[in-house]
Known about the structure:
Blueprint: E1 13-16, E2 23-24, H1 26-38, H2 47-50, H3 58-68, H4 74-90, E3 97-98, H5 102-111, E4 115-119, H6 124-133, E5 142-144, H7 159-167, E6 173-177, H8 180-188, E7 193-196, E8 212-214, H9 220-228
Helix pairs in contact: 1-4, 3-4
Amino acid sequence: MTLNSSPDPFFDIVGFDLDGTLLDTSGDLAAAVNHALASIDRPLLTVEQVKPMIGGGARHMLAQGLAATGGCDDATLDMLHRRLLDHYEANIAVLTRPYPGTLAALDTLAARGVRIAVVTNKLESLARKVIDALDLTRRFACIIGGDTMGPGNGKPSPKPIYEMLARCGGGTAAFVGDSIFDVQAGHAAGLPTVACSFGFLMQPVEELGADAIIDGFDALIPTLERLAVR
C-alpha cells in the first residue's frame, strides 16, 4: 500500500465580502442613513429595513433609503451621499463587530497557509478604516474596495476578484459573501462561492445561486473543504 503524504486539497486564497459577511455593520450603516434622512425631515428607518439595502455601496444604499421614504432627485442624492459618508466615517465602528466565529475561522485559514482577502463594494478608504478600527488589518493579504478598480468596476464585475487573485499571488480560490453581487462576481471570475445566510440578504439565500450556503462561521472550513475537492 502506498501512503499519500500530501496535504488534503484546499484553496490557496479565500476572499470575503465585508458588510454582512465578516462584519455586522448594520447598526452603524443604518445610523448613517438615518442621519442623512433626518437632515431633510424624512422618516427614519429601522436597522432591519436598512439591511437589505446594504451591499451595493453607500450611494446605492442611500438611494434605496430615499426611495422608501419619498424619493429624491440626483442633486439631493449627491448632497445627502456626502452627508452620509461624513457621518459614517466619524462613527464607523460604534456598533460594528465581527460575526460570531469570524476570528476563529480566519485563524484556522491562516494556520493552513491560506491567503485571506477582502473584496467589498464599500469605498476602499472606509473599508480600511473600519477594518483597522477593529484591529483586523494584519489578517488580510489585500483589501479591495468598490472604487479600487475605478467607477463601475465594483462587484458584480469580476474585475475586483481578478485583482484579488493577482495581489494574492495567484492560485486556487473561493469567495464568500452575502449578496447576489458577491455570487455573480465570484462566478464571473470562475470561483466557487459560499453564501452567508446570516448576512444582509436582498433575497432568499437559496436564490443567490451560490455553490454552498453556511448559517454560521463554524461551517465555513468544512464547506470550503468540500468545495476544494470538487
